[in-house]
Amino acid sequence: MTSLPTFIRRDWLDVGDGHQLHLAQYGDPDGVPVLYLHGGPGAGCMSDELALFDGDNCHVLMLDQRGTGRSKPLGEIEKNNVLALLKDLEKVRLWLGIPAWCLVGGSFGATLGMLYSGLYPEKVLSQVYWGLFIPSEDGTNWLYSNKGAANLFADEYLAFTALTPFCSNVDQLFKTYRLGLKHNDADTRHHYIRSWLAWESALAMPANEMSGSDAFMSKSLAEIELHYASHQYFGAYSLMREISAGIQAPSIILQGEMDWVCPTQIVENFLTQFGCDTINYSVIKSGYHGLADDKMFREVVYAIREMANNIKEV
């Protein structure tokens, strides 16, 4: 029987550029150091994600990335890009004095972890990811154009684009949403926020109602996601192609068979072209995108706990 990680301490780390990152530590300070990388980008860490970890084995590090969660200022997109996030991770590792750590994360968090493990291969002991997002043109078009998931979720896509009836391409869609999220009228802003997040929710867990959440947090999530998508994820795809073959740590990627946010075909094509022998890729039958799916949650828990046990035995 495993126990949930208990709270140790929290800090706000000044990483420069006007950003202070919230870092909460849980579990056993002498356990296997595990950095949790949340998705979005912009989602922040959630307390229920602690259920992924064994508090007796792991020193769990829950880091809110720039502009997210309890990091300050919330929703800030200035100096918020992929390279800045990667540098932040290394600053956190050095601040903690950890020689090397394990990484876990889903969706964009998995993207960020893959990039970090390619840039700093000797600093990563092992890693587990799920719902890996490939930040390519194909990945973006699948999510937001009328040529990908829109063909499987026609009604939901119609609702998503109802606020942008004259948009003929993804760039125009992003421009319209950017204006909507900054509209002077609060009700109009809220409408755009709900519409943006409802589309993603429909793909992540089809037939489920979008869960309610803090309005301000929802606004920051929508704005940061749009910020990254409209800037083509700041060159993350080119960087992933260059460095993924250099990943040294044992790596597990779990992709849901029914992941409509980050479909298996795009992930498999990337790994076939740019992956390496240290990456173990598995498709979870009938699995969806995120941890709200019980099948995916159980597989991720098992993989993380196996990883921690293996590291502790070395």
Automatic annotation (TrEMBL):
The lineage of its organism: Bacteria, Pseudomonadati, Pseudomonadota, Gammaproteobacteria, Alteromonadales. SUPFAM superfamilies: alpha/beta-Hydrolases. Residues 33-289 form the AB hydrolase-1 domain. One of its GO terms (molecular function) is hydrolase activity. InterPro entries: AB_hydrolase_1 (IPR000073), AB_hydrolase_fold (IPR029058), Peptidase_S33 (IPR002410), Pro_iminopeptidase (IPR005944). It catalyses: Release of N-terminal proline from a peptide. Its EC number is 3.4.11.5. The chain crosses the membrane at residues 94-116. It is found in: Cytoplasm. Keywords: Aminopeptidase, Cytoplasm, Hydrolase, Membrane, Protease, Transmembrane, Transmembrane helix. Belongs to the peptidase S33 family. This is Proline iminopeptidase. It comes from Shewanella psychropiezotolerans. The keyword Cytoplasm applies.
